[in-house]
Amino acid sequence: MRYIIHGAGAIGSLVGGWLAASGAEVVMVARQAHAEAINERGLTIRSREGDRHITGITAVTDPRQLSPRADDVIFLVVKSQQTAASVQALHEVFDQETPLFCFQNGIRNEKVAAWRFRRVYGVMLGPSATLLGPGVIAHTRMRNLAIGDYPLGCDELALAVAEQLTRAGFEVTTHYNVMAVKWSKLLLNLNNATHAIANYYVQLSQVTPKVSHFMADVVDEGLRVLAAAGISIEEKNNPLDVRAFVAKLRGVGGNEAEIRAAESLPDEMRTWPSTWVDLKNKRDETEVEYFNGEIVLLGEKHHIPTPFNTTLLNTVEIMAAGQQPPGRYTIDELIGMVEQKRSEMYQEHSKTPPQ
């Protein structure tokens, strides 16, 4: 198989780089500076284990530069707001029978891809990575991927791709209902907005009590909404135990050693969610509507107040539109904004806020 990595930024480069290092044939579709660096010098992946330099990868800037082959497999690794345009661009080059795997967060991408491609697969992304510069990325945490057919099933190709990714170094599970796993990941992605608004990286937020407890409330609200909507996150071998993660966040008590360890992490090993990166780079569009927006929409439909996710959604959208950098509000200010929204929403729903 030849793997076409469409959207080879940080995560796409990590996936493609490890595949290439395992002996797979890889072509990356990347931005010009990154593509040129990969073609000229190869790809460097930094991690806590040290630097890994990978050569033998071909990089292009547009899928039209490629000649399709019968053994092509496409990995779509763009943000949700870029999916429709990317799928159309790929459809103009590749046959509709070409397998396409959505290596993306959110739960709408597979449906969009299925408008143009017949064989669509869902992939839950666990790893975090950062693009440090052309030809250089950092892998900051986790290796887990979950794969399955869209909307249901797990065929021979899904199993073969999972096996190749396992050989490359990922921890891969395969699923009949991969979208249940992707809904689980969406719940965890709800706090991308929290990190961006209050300017926290993941390793520090998860050991800081006030932040971790707020994050638990955000995910709990999402769980209540999904339950009301009848959306299950139960799936055999689901690598994401959302309820256990919430319990862990609630149990954070401010261990000084853990906080010092998080604060001592080198900058390039800190995990900054994509929403933080978007605000840092003054992009006027983020994935917040595909994460928190999903919970807000379902909450409205099923008459469940969503003060946490509504506040996060509205605040990030305002910050992005105004090109405001991360850290516009402190966690205390964010908590206060949620309390104000909670009061407004429960009055609107004629309910009394829970004590």
List the topology elements:
Layout: E1 2-6, H1 10-21, E2 25-29, H2 32-41, E3 43-47, E4 50-54, E5 58-60, E6 72-76, H3 83-91, E7 100-103, H4 109-113, E8 120-125, E9 128-133, E10 136-141, E11 144-149, H5 156-168, E12 171-174, H6 178-189, H7 192-198, H8 202-205, H9 209-229, H10 242-250, H11 256-263, H12 274-280, H13 288-301, H14 307-321, H15 331-348
Parallel strand pairs: 1-2, 1-6, 2-5, 3-10, 6-7, 7-8, 11-12
Antiparallel strand pairs: 3-4, 8-11, 9-10
Helix pairs in contact: 1-5, 7-12, 7-14, 9-10, 9-13, 13-14, 14-15
Could you describe the 3D structure shown?
With 355 residues, the chain is an alpha/beta fold. The protein has two domains: 2-176, NAD(P)-binding Rossmann-like Domain (Rossmann fold), CATH 3.40.50.720; 183-348, N-(1-d-carboxylethyl)-l-norvaline Dehydrogenase, domain 2. Helices cover 46% and strands 17% of the residues. It is built from 15 helices and twelve strands. The protein has helices at 10-21, 32-41, 83-91, 109-113, 156-168, 178-189, 192-198, 202-205, 209-229, 242-250, 256-263, 274-280, 288-301, 307-321, 331-348, and strands at residues 2-6, 25-29, 43-47, 50-54, 58-60, 72-76, 100-103, 120-125, 128-133, 136-141, 144-149, 171-174. The strands form two sheets. It has an eight-stranded mixed sheet, sandwiched between helices. A four-stranded mixed sheet has the order 4-3-10-9. Strand 11, helix 5 and strand 12 form a beta-alpha-beta unit. Helix 7 (192-198) packs across helix 14 and helix 14 packs across helix 15 (331-348). The mean pLDDT is 97.
